[in-house]
Amino acid sequence: MTPSAFPLHKEKTLLNLARISVLLMAAVLLPSSLFGETLTAVRLDVPEKFRKGVFSTERTLEAFPGLKVSVYAAGVPGARFMAVRDDGVIFLSSPSEGNVLALPDRDLDGVADEVIVFARNLKRPHGLAFRDGTLIVAETGSLIALEDAKAVLKAEVKRILSQDVPAGGGHWTRTVVAGPDNALYVSAGSSSNACVEADKRRAAVLRFTDSKAEIFATGLRNSVGIEFHPETGELWGVDNGRDSIGDDIPPEELNLIEKGGDYGWPFCYGDRVPDPELGSPERCRDTVPPVVVMQAHSAPLGIAFGYGLDFPKRLKEALHVAFHGSWDREIPTGYKLVAIPFRDGRPSGAAFDVVTGWLVEGEAWGRPVDAVVGKDGALYVSDDRAGAVYRITYTGKP
C-alpha cells in the first residue's frame, strides 16, 4: 500500500492539509465491518488473583470474532516492552521501577504463576531482545546483556555492550531488536517535538556490531516499535508524528526502514509534506515516504508480525500494532490493537481493528504498549496504565 499524495506547497493552509489527512486516514483505517468482521463484545477474563484495582470492575472489550482476551499478569507498574525466551518465558520491562521482570507460566494454564524481578536498579530499561539466548536490554544511554547462567530467572551476569546510545531527552525510550545479521538495531527518538538535532544518533535507528553505533537510518521522530519481517528479513517500524499542528496531522507512519534512508523528520511528514515551521519542498523531495499512514496522534508503539499465531490466516499474515492513544487531540483516539495485512512481505490491504475498548466515553482505563507472539501461539499485549499483560487467543467461537 502506498499513501495518497499530500500537497507539496508550503503555502497551503493547515486546514486544507487537515482535510486531506482526514480523507487519507479514512482510506487507510477502514472499519473492519467492511470485511464482514464486525467486532464482538467479549468479557475480559480476569483470574481471581488479579481482581483488584482496575480489574475489580468487570471489563468488556470489543474483539475480532473468535478472540478471547484474558489477563496474563497484573500488578506490574509501567508495563512496557516484552521479549519471549526460547522456553516460552515472557520478559517485561518496567522502566518506571528500573526493573526487568520474568513472567513464567510453568503449569501452562495461560496465567503467569508469579512476577519475578529478573534484574533491578537499571536505568529506565525499555526495549528487550534475545540474541543467542542472552537477554539484551536497551536502557537510556546504554545497551546491556543479562545472563541467567543458572536458569533460575535471575540475571546473574550483567555486561555493558555499548554506551554509545543517546540518553534522556523528550523521547527517552530505547528499543532494541536483533537482526538476521546478528547485529543489534536500536531506535532512539528525538530530544523534542520538532527541532534540528545536534546529536545525529537521535531520531534515528542505530546499528551495533560492536560497542560503536552506526547510523542506519534517520528522520524518524520516534520509532518506538521496530521489527524484522520473519520471511524477508527487512526492518519495519512505526513512527509517531509531531504534535501541535492539528488534530488530524501529521499522520502516524509505518515505514520500511532501509540503510541510509532519510524519512523526513523534522522537515517533512507523510508523503513529503513540508513541516509548517521547518520544512520546504526542496528539503523534502528526496526523503522516503511512509508505506502506510495512520490516524494522527494514535501513538503506535510496539509491533509484532503474527506469523507464529494460532489464529486465522487474516490475523496471522498481518502486522499487529499497539496504539497507546492520544494526548494532543481534542477527541481522544487510539487505545487499541490494530492489524495491517501483509502479503509477499508488503502491506496488502486496509488496516483493521483487532481489539478495542480500553477507551470508554473519552476516558482510558488502559493503554496498550507492546505486542509479542508467544511460543504457545497466543498474542500478548502489555498495558502501562493498567499495569498488566493480556493474553489473546483464538477460540473459533464468535
| Distance separating the two termini | 30 Å
Average of the residue pLDDT scores: 91
Look up the CATH topology.
Answer: Neuraminidase
Give the strand tally: 31
Largest sheet: 7 strands, antiparallel
Write the layout of secondary structure elements.
Layout: H1 14-28, E1 40-43, E2 60-63, E3 67-74, E4 82-84, E5 90-94, E6 99-103, E7 116-119, E8 127-131, E9 134-139, E10 142-147, E11 157-162, E12 174-178, E13 184-188, E14 204-208, E15 213-218, E16 226-228, E17 235-239, E18 252-257, E19 268-269, E20 273-274, H2 281-284, E21 292-294, E22 300-305, H3 313-316, E23 318-323, E24 336-343, E25 346-347, E26 352-356, E27 359-360, E28 363-364, E29 368-373, E30 379-383, E31 388-394
Antiparallel strand pairs: 1-2, 2-26, 3-31, 4-5, 5-6, 6-7, 8-9, 9-10, 10-11, 12-13, 13-14, 14-15, 16-17, 17-18, 18-21, 19-20, 22-23, 23-24, 24-25, 24-26, 27-28, 29-30, 30-31
Structural descriptors:
398 residues, mainly beta, Neuraminidase, seven-stranded antiparallel sheet
Describe this structure in words.
With 398 residues, the protein is mainly beta. The protein contains 3 helices and 31 strands. Strands 1, 2, 22, 23, 24, 25 and 26 form a 7-stranded antiparallel beta sheet that branches. The protein has a 4-stranded antiparallel beta sheet with strand order 3-31-30-29, with no helix packed on it. Strands 4-5-6-7 form a 4-stranded antiparallel beta sheet, with no helix packed on it. The protein has one domain (14-394): Neuraminidase.
